[in-house]
Amino acid sequence: MESANSIAATLRLQITATEKRLASLKQQLADIEEKSAENVSVSPEVPVTQKTKWPLSAEEYKRYGRQMIVPNAGLKGQLRLKSASVLIIGAGGLGCPSSAYLAGAGVGTIGIVDGDTVEISNLHRQILHNTSTVGLKKVDSVISYLKNLNPNATYIPYDIHLTPQNAEEIVSNYDLVLDCTDHPTSRYLISDACVLLSKPLVSASALRTDGQLIVLNSPPLPVGNPEGGPCYRCVFPKPPPAASVVSCGDGGIIGPVVGVMGVLQALEAIKLIVSGKLKGDGEPVASSMLLFSANGNPQFRSLRMRARSPKCAACSENAELTLKNLPEMDYAFFCGLTAPVNILEAEERIEAKEYEKLSKGTKQHLLLDVRDKVQFDICNLEGSINVPFSTFQGGRPLSQEGEQPSWLPESFAPDSPIYVVCRLGNDSQVVTRKLKESGLGTREIKDIRGGLKSWKEQVDDSWPEY
Amino acid sequence: MAAENTIPVIVEFTGGLEMLFSDERKHKLSVPTKDDQGKAVNIGWLVEYLCDKVMKDTRKEMFVLDGHVRPGILVLINDADWELEGEASYALQPNDNILFVSTLHGG
After folding, report:
1. Which chain A residue has the Cα nearest residue B25?
2. Which of A37, A163, A352, A439 has its CA 20 to 30 A from that of A210?
């Protein structure tokens, strides 16, 4: 009761303070409206925007003073930031910190592209969103934060994903692009658009405890000019096999790791803008990639990278890519599709609720959980045993000829069934197929359809989905 | 094998590739100076050697595809893109540092 009373008292204080603040804002607004009305009626010759002898407002000198006094930044750098426009594609783990630093630094125009909404699983790393913005469009959540941070800039939301069809229209409005997305399809598309529209591109990525940063197409010289900076296709001419692409949702990500990479993107952007190198003037710089490994020693490593490739499909003189054919490009096809796995017949699968009934019976069976050990240790079903999916991949047989796999209990009867489960029901199908083909097949071997996600939906809603 | 017939090299894996190599990022290796045909060993030879002798994981295709380092993996020789050094034909030198980086896509 004591604590309820003290919470109520705190709330009353907060309400009083907020009411005072509201009254003050209303007064400010009324004053401004009154003044502008006077200006119009009494002195119509006064221009709407008053010119002073100083290029920035008094507030701007104060706000940006700490960075303006750094050698190489200066007033000139600040004015360049103010007149610069930066497009940030992706309002997630990279886009949040990078947009915050760029808004804070006084970049005049910031566009944000993202079609997703805020989820609670984003919040440990996507630091501009918060618990109360869960469910909102990410662009709206980010821009509301940025406006609070620095109301001087213009913020332009695009609550859609970048596509080959809209890329030219969006990207062409900006001086510089930050790739803060999370998939090879968008990374190739963004690079291609930047090459065709001559925009430098600051690209970063992160997974688990590692991050990578590379400045591409800088200087952004015309297609065919070998002096221009390499593009994403110069460095990665062929996309990785779809099966090797791991998202943060599947592989995991430590918040500060992706945060570091986003902050570094903002830094590279500020360096390019302040030095006046957006258009590629000045000495060309050798291309490099920065690697960050939280557990590495050293943690940062700078790698010397190749120049533009004379065979590049986007930026070389032999490239066939043009602004005209960009909208017809199929990046999902180029990178390979990752459709949900569906390789089993209906009778090779079992619903979670049926498995639950059967598991309560007396018949001996084995529940094989093929998630990574770290996921198994977070939560698992009673009696299940853990044999990670990676154990089953590759060409090698499950066990030596004529022997049982080591994970199979010795007392386990040869006709007792095996059920396979994973997080979402994809890997478990692959393992079920492999087990059936490897001489364990006379017994019943079934996949639990939809994995532990279905277990939560059908059987136990207390199951801690992560 | 006598020391004069081997070259010490450091091989490193990052970006998730270390998972294919017993979760070890850094491997200090001593490799023969010559291959089966008596030619000086190069990076192409080293990639095969890593697959046959060092990799315990069964997922070879996550490292090598169609006889080449798979797309999405960068090879760095002493912190320089292998494209600047002659790619697979670069002849290994004593104490070279060869880094394999898997590209990341998350953000």
Report:
1. A296
2. A163
Rounded to whole angstroms, the Cα distance separating B80 from A365 reads 54
- C-alpha–C-alpha distance, residues A132 and A129, integer Å: 8
**Domain boundaries defined on chain B:** 3-102
User: Is A198 assigned to a binding site?
Assistant: no
Nearest to B59 among A94, A305, A393 (CB): A393
* A366 is known to lie in a ligand binding site: no
Contacts of A302 (CB under 8 A, 6+ apart): A288, A289, A290, A291, B79
User: Annotated catalytic, A248?
Assistant: yes
Each residue's pLDDT tens digit, A38-97: 554 444 444 455 677 899 999 999 999 999 999 999 999 999 999 999 999 999 999 999
Judging contacts by C-beta atoms under 8 Å, the chain A residues touching residue B102 are 240, 244
H helices, E strands: number in chain B: 1, 7
Rg over alpha carbons for chain A, rounded to the nearest Å, is 28
Mapped to the 3 state alphabet, what secondary structure does A141-175 carry?
HHHHHHHHHCCCCEEEEECCCCCCCCHHHHHCCCC
Active site residue A335: no
Q: Calculate how close chain B gets to A18, using CA atoms only, in Å.
A: 37
Element (H, E) at B29: strand B26-32
Q: What is the pTM of this model?
A: 0.85
Q: Do A204 and B83 touch (CB under 8 A)?
A: no
| CATH 3.10.20.30 applies to domain B3-102 | yes
Residue A125 marked in a binding site: yes
